[in-house]
Each structure stands twice: as C-alpha cells, then as structure tokens.
Amino acid sequence: MATPLFDKNSPDQLTKQRAICMERDCQSKKMYELLKACEKRVTSKTYTAETCSQEVIDLLEALDHCVGDKAFKEFK
C-alpha cells in the first residue's frame, strides 16, 4: 500500500485498529484490493456509471468486523 489509509500510531483507537487490520487481516486486504481494482477501472474510462460505492462499503464492513472486539478494548 503506497499511502496508508489509517495510521497505526494514531491516538484514536478505532483508527489505530483499522490500520492494524489493513496490515494483518486477509479479508480487509482483499476488500482493499477490490476497491483499488474498481478505482482503476473507473478512472480508465471516459464515462461509466460505476462508482465503487459497494467496494467502499465492503471494505468498511470488513474493517468493522476485524476491529469489533479490539477498537474500544481499553475503555471497557
């Protein structure tokens, strides 16, 4: 990944855990790759109705699933 989407050194626990998931979670990595492929398809065309919105949702759902039990662990 050239530019990180999330900072694993962030003081925000959700951002930190999402960054860790982007590095370690296979499903999150897969959804990110699908999003990048969609963005590449969309930007390569002069006109398309495709928006990649489903890929964004899928990535966020994968990240939420990954961080679900970790993001706010320190606050329990």
Mean pLDDT: 85
Shape: elongated
Please summarize the sheet with the most strands.
none
Strand and helix order:
HHH
End-to-end Cα distance, whole Å, is 32 Å
Low-confidence stretches: none
Give Rg in angstroms: 14 Å
Tell me the number of helical segments per DSSP (H or I, 4 or more residues long): 3
| Structural class category | mainly alpha
Beta content: under 5%
Number of strands: 0
Helix content: 55-70%
Model description:
- With 76 residues, this protein is mostly helical.
- Helix content is 59%, strand content 0%.
- The mean pLDDT is 85.
- The protein has helices spanning 13-24, 26-43, 53-67.
Give the SSE map.
Blueprint lengths: L12 H12 L1 H18 L9 H15 L9
Helix pairs in contact: 1-2, 1-3, 2-3
Keywords:
mainly alpha; 59% helix; 76 residues
